[in-house]
Amino acid sequence: MDFNYSENQKIISETISNFSKREIIPNMYDWDEKQHFPIDLFKKIGELGMMGVLVPEEYGGSGLTYDEYVTIISELSKVCGSIGLSVAAHNSLCTGHILKFGNEDQKNKYLPKLASGKYLGAWALTEPVTGSDAMRMNTTARKEGNYWIINGAKNFITHGASGDVIVVIARTGDLGDSRGISAFIVEASNPGVSSGKKENKLGMRASETAEVIFHNCKVSDDAIIGNPGEGFIQSMKILDGGRISIAALSLGIAKGAYNAALKYSKERSQFGKAISNFQAISFKLADMATEISAAELLIYKSAYLINNNKPVTTESAMAKYFSSELAVKISSEAVQIFGGYGFVKDFPVEKYYRDSKLCTIGEGTSQIQKLVISKNILS
After folding, report:
1. In Å, how far are 243, 307, 323, 332 from 2, measured between CA atoms?
2. Do 109 and 197 lie in a common domain?
3. Which residue ranges of the chain lie beneath pLDDT 70?
4. Among residues 37, 73, 104, 224, which is most buried (max CB within 10 A)?
5. 65, 153: one domain
6. CB–CB of 45/87 below 8 Å?
7. What pLDDT, on a 0 to 100 scale, did the predictor assign at position 258?
8. 363: domain range?
9. 115 and 29: one domain?
10. Could you tell me if 369 and 267 lie in one domain?
C-alpha cells in the first residue's frame, strides 16, 4: 500500500492552498465573528470541482474517489472548519443520498446542479426531541393519491435556510418501525417549506445551521428516493460515508491546530530559548504528530474499504470517533502551548478549539460511535 499522496491529491492540496489564500483566509475571522454564511464562496468551490467530488462525470461531477474526497475535506478544514463542514455536508449527505439511492431521473435532474455548486444541498434527519433516536421521528409524510404531504420540523440542519434541495427523512409508517421511514427530495422553493431559527453556535459559525419547517408540504411520487419504507436503511448507509467526512474534517482541524502550535513553539522564546526546546512542549508536539498519523491511517483505511465496496460501518465509526476526539484534544493542547495568547482571537488556535467540538457531536456522537463499534465487534 502506498502511503504517499497521489498526483491527484498533491494537485488538490496545492489548489486548495492557493484558493484559501485568496478566498478564505482574508475573510474567515470576519465570517466567524459575524456568523456570516458565505454562500457565494461555494459556487467558486463548485468551479474547482469540489461540490461533486464523488459524482461521476456523466452527471457533471469530478468522478473521484474517497481518497481525494478525504484530502479535499481535510485540506479545507486545516484552514477553516466551517468551510470544510459545509462542503462535507453537501457532498456526502444530500448529494451522496441522491447519487447512491436516487433513480436516473432524479440523478439527471439534481446531480449536475449540485455538483456544479449552482444548487446547495441539505439533508434533514435530526429533530428537536429525537436526536440520536431517529426511529422515533415525528415528521410525517402522508400519502394522498399521487402525492405525499409532509409535516414536521427538523433542526440542526446544515444549510437549513440557504439550501436549494433538501433530502428529507420522514415517517411514512408506524412510530419506531425502521421500515416505516422514507426519504424524499424536496426543493426549498416548495411553498410548504420554510426555515426557522438559525442557531447561534460556539464554533463552525460560518457554516449555516438552521431549523427547517414543513407545513402541508406537497410533493409528488417522483420525489421519493427508492421505495417507501427504505429511508432509514438508506440513511444508515449514507452515515457510513458521512462519518468518513467528519473524520476528515476532524483531521484537518487537528492538523491546522498542530501546525500553528509547532510554528509558534519555534518562535516563542522563554528563559533565553525557543519553548520547543523544553521537553514539556516537545513531548506535547510529539504526541500530537503521532496521533494525527494514527487518525490519518484509520481514515484512509475506511476510504479504501468504501472505494472497494467493502463493509465499512465499523471502520468509519472508529475513524470518526478517534479523529473527532483527537481534534478536541489537539486543539486544546495547541491553546495550552500558546498560553494566554491561545485564549484570544488575535491568534488562530482558539477557533480550532471552538470548531473541533462539533466533530464529536455531528453525524452521531462519540457515544453513538462506541455503540456501533461495540455492537459490531461483539456480534
Report:
1. 23, 15, 21, 32
2. no
3. 1
4. 73
5. no
6. yes
7. 98
8. 232-378
9. yes
10. yes
29, containing H or E segment? helix 28-34
**Helices 39-47 & 104-116 angle (0-180, nearest 10):** 100
Is 202 among the domain residues? yes
Is 144 designated active site? no
Residues 247 and 345 in one domain: yes
Helix/strand/coil (H/E/C) assignment for every residue in 94-150: HHHHHHHHCCHHHHHHHHHHHHHCCCCEEEECCECCECCCHHHCCCEEEEECCEEEE
What is the per-residue pLDDT across 43-101, written as a single tens digit (0 to 9) for each?
Answer: 999 999 999 999 999 999 999 999 999 999 999 999 999 999 999 999 999 999 999 99
Say yes or no: 242 and 267 in one domain.
yes
39-55 as b/e, with b when 16 or more CB fall inside 10 Å? eebbebbbeebbbbbbb
Report DSSP state, residue 160. Answer: T
Catalytic choice (325, 333, 350, 363): 363
Provide the 8-state DSSP code for 268. -
* Cβ-proximal residues to 316 (8 Å cutoff; 6+ apart), any chain: 240, 241, 243, 244, 247, 302, 305, 306
- Whether the model pTM is above 0.70: yes
On whether the CB atoms of residues 315 and 369 are closer than 8 A, the answer is no
Query: What is the tally of structural domains in the chain?
Result: 3
Tell whether 371 and 244 lie within a shared domain: yes
CA-nearest of 149, 155, 185, 151 to 168 is: 185
Task: Find the CATH number of the domain harbouring 94.
Answer: 1.10.540.10
58 burial type by CB count under 10 A (0-12 exposed, 13-18 middle, 19+ buried): exposed
Determine the 3-state secondary structure of 170 from DSSP: strand
Give tens-digit pLDDT for 309-351.
999 999 999 999 999 999 999 999 999 999 999 999 999 999 9
Please report, for residues 184, 185, 231, 241, 259, the alpha-carbon distance to residue 106 in angstroms, rounded to integers and kept in the order given: 11, 9, 16, 20, 43
Q: What pLDDT is attached to residue 1?
A: 67
**Percent of the chain predicted with pLDDT > 70:** 100
All three cell numbers of 137, joined, read 421521528
